[in-house]
Amino acid sequence: MNHSSSGSLALRKAIIGFSNHKTAEGLTERSVDSYKRDLEKWVAYAGDVDVAQITKQDIEAYLFYLRTEYIPHRFGGDTRTLSPKTLRNIYVTLASFFTWASREFRVENPMKEIPAPRFQNAPIEPFTQEAVQRMLKACVYSREADPVNRRRFVMRRPTANHDQAKRKSVSCKASFK
C-alpha cells in the first residue's frame, strides 16, 4: 500500500486497503460491504482526512452524532434513530478499522480508550405449541378452494412432506438453543 510521507493515508484510500485486508482474511462479501457502508458514513461525517489525524474526540463526537442527530435513510422512509445494537455494530467496525490502521500505519489507535456502546438483546419469545401446529399444517395443505360447481375442499401441497420435514427440523433446532 502506498503510504504518505507521514506514514499515514487519506481515509478513503485506507478504507480500500482495509476492505482488501478483510476480504483476504476470508470475511464474506456481505460483511465487507457492511464495513464499507459504516466507514463511508464516517467519511461523509469527518471528510477525507488523514488517518493519523483522527483523534479519540473525533470518534466520540461521531458516535454522539449517530446517537442524537443522524437521520437514517431507509427504504420505507422510517426516520427512527439508530438502535443501540446498530450503534454497537458501527463501533465494532471503527474499532476493527483503527486496529488495522494502527498496525498498517504505525499510528496511535484512537479507539483504545473508547468504551463500546451498551445494548440489551431483545427477549426471544418462543412459539407456542399451537403456533407450531398451525405452521406444520400450513406446510401440508394449501388454502381452501371454493369452486362454484362442487363443495369446498383443501388440497394437499405437492411438496408437503418435504416442507413439513424442513419445518420440524427448524423448530427442533430452535428448541435446543
The secondary-structure element order is HHHHHEEH
Largest sheet: 2 strands, antiparallel
Kindly provide the name of the CATH class of the largest domain.
Answer: Mainly Alpha
Helix content: 40-55%
Key words describing this protein structure:
6 helices; two-stranded antiparallel ribbon; 54% helix; disordered N terminus; elongated; DNA polymerase, domain 1; 2 domains; mainly alpha; 177 residues; single chain
Summarize the structure.
This protein is mainly alpha-helical. It has helices spanning 11-25, 29-46, 56-68, 84-105, 129-140, 160-175, and strands at residues 141-145, 153-156.
Task: Please tell me about this protein's structure.
By secondary structure, the chain is mostly helical. It is built from six helices and two strands. Strand 1 and strand 2 form a beta hairpin.
SSE topology sketch:
Elements: H1 11-25, H2 29-46, H3 56-68, H4 84-105, H5 129-140, E1 141-145, E2 153-156, H6 160-175
Antiparallel strand pairs: 1-2
Helix pairs in contact: 1-2, 5-6
